[in-house]
Xaa-Pro dipeptidyl-peptidase
Amino acid sequence: MKLNQFARLTPDFKVQVAELKQIGLQADPDDAFSQSATDLFNAFFPEAYTLAAKEDKLAQVAVNMDQTLAAWLAKKPSKMTRRDFYNVALQLLGFEAFTDFDLNDPFKMMTATKLPSLDHDLTSTADLLKAVYLLLNTRTKHLVSYLDDLANRGFLKDFQKKQKKPTHLLFNGKVQQVFDARQAVREVVWIESDMDTDHDGQRDLLEATIYRPKATDQGLKVPVLFTANPYFHGTNDVTAVTHVPETTLAVKTHGASKAEVTANPEEPANLPHHPVNGEATQAEAYAEENSMYAFNDYFLARGFAVVYSAGVGTRYSDGFRTTGGPEETDGAVAVIEWLTGKRRAFTNRTDGITIKAWWSTGLVAMTGKSYLATLAMAAATTGVDGLKTIVADAGISSWYDYYRENGLVVAPGGFQGEDADVLAVDTFSRQKSGGDLINIKQAWEKHLATITHDQDRTTGAYNTWWDARNYRKNANKVKADVVLIHGLNDWNVKPTNAIKFWEAIADLPIQKKLVLHQGQHVYVHNVRSLDFLDMMNLWLTHELLGEANGAEDVLPNVVVQDNVAVQTWSAYQNFASPAAEHVTNTRNLKTDFEAATDQFTDHATATFNAQHDTSASFETAIITPNSAYANSRLWLTQPPLERDQTLEGIPHLELTLAIDAPTGILSVRLIDLGMAKRFGETAATVALNGLQLGFDYKTTDILEFKPTAKPTPSKLISLGHINLQNPKNAYEVQRITPGQPFHISLDLQPTHYHLPAGRQLALVIHGADMAQTIRPIKTTHYQIDLANSSITLPYRI
């Protein structure tokens, strides 16, 4: 086990003492050592209410091989050895003597686990207080810090009773759980937008669900974590509308210019406002939906309000879904504007009674994963006031990069046949209310047909519809600080979405952080080896509470999880830069790779059908040395590596080839070859319900990325797809003459990948990708000019 920690601060001793006193500990350096030790260790068992109960708890802790903590304290000691203190500390952190560590040498385990310690014996009360302060900020076996663990057991439950008025509590630069999340006020309001997406002549009203600390009713104003969640009110069965992958790749007869595919923002309609008949300070509707994001729940107990809005076209709101369109961005912005006092909301949809977010400080962070993170990124590119930061996990920065690639229809990994119209149906939760649906069904079906037409599955080309859903082109407007989290094995929302957004905001005068993990489309807030919750606590305390805690400097710019060394996270200044830390090597496909042939015929669809394969089984087979698809691919290998190497950046392919057809699909996979136990792409549960989100509150599982039980022969590092008629970009078209050579350039997905010595790099070039592209029936023959083809690989040095 490794408990990496990036968010721990080391303030001077006076600050440490003041903070210890603030959380209710006896922390006077002039007190006798024995009295201070007794007071402190007794305080660490808040679940024990009497001295007798505390004595029993102390007797359960071993100081060394000879005595318990209760017996040691009874001797009124005047000092404590470093070894004895950390024997006690480890047990307080949840580790077991004799099982997890040796009482004769706790430091061996602490070093391996990356737990901090003082480097000397405790010979004074000041030493003891320093050790206790560090202990409180040390991570436990249960992922959270020791102070968090104490608070989960009731240590801070009476904090507010001792204050003249409700307040936030900060410790080590981070806000603490001193609010009872069980008592949160739950309410619903309807925010007036500027849009009429269902074309009924009225501004769409957008439902927003609010959970705010009860202390706001006593005058406390709080910042807000806002999650724009289209799934919040449920989803629909999309089996009937999911596309069957087409069997013919269209020959494109004409392309377009950049100007022709550039979307121009539409002027907002001059719609009348909903009438106002009065104002209220209390909502009329209870929030019946439960909060569904553990990250937000964690901060609710720390004095942040949490707001969800599903947006246009969802249950209890007006409008129609647009799958990432400007209307969905505007809907998220409308919620922020209400939270900052710049837009009206109503207590219900009919009476015209307005209500303000009077409990809000007007400082907002947007959070969430996938579609939720996408809307956070979209809102940030508007530059809306009040949005201080986004914490965006696996977000889409351009919807073309989600459903298309280089002129091809490309499904997100794991969802073959999905497209923008399918997702619109999936999230159109208004249809769950029959009384609502009967009034809008015809108009919705007409609207949906427009999406199906405009997404253009025939050519897969980039057009104005997709351009309107490319948030990166407005990245220069971003004013909010940005945290991006992404899985390096996320073939659903592929890594290019994060890295291209990261590059787009690189020169902006904002703070930005990037976390890259080895998972697929998953959260990391409950991964034990990373102190992600503490990192974001430090970040949000700075961003939303205005604490000068140095978060922008303490937290690394880039944190990346290693794919070989277990539970290892490394800090870097940037991704794929600066030049002093990186090098690119261009390798010729003929002289630097071994290949049995330079040509293949793509029979993948026939093989797929004959094998009764699935998308998942195809993805395994296409990168397996001995495969049923061996004749439908080109397999190129490099010699085994003589030393460890780390790929970091965007692999780039230059390829000269000829095909026997006027169009074709080319897929490329970069492979790590060699039998090994590699990480699973989904973190495994290591403690069921082990992460507690607040005192007597919700729990969630603790996870960890682990190597697979059995070795595998290969693993996908990166991939790319291209329509061979689109060698330059996704809108200009090249005519292909069958049998005549032509050239293409292709960027693969960004990666950070550690290749150990002895492994081999392999390059797989094939045609249709059964898991992601369409599935042509017609076979195509590919002839690759290896001598005039190359791949450029980026390395961290």
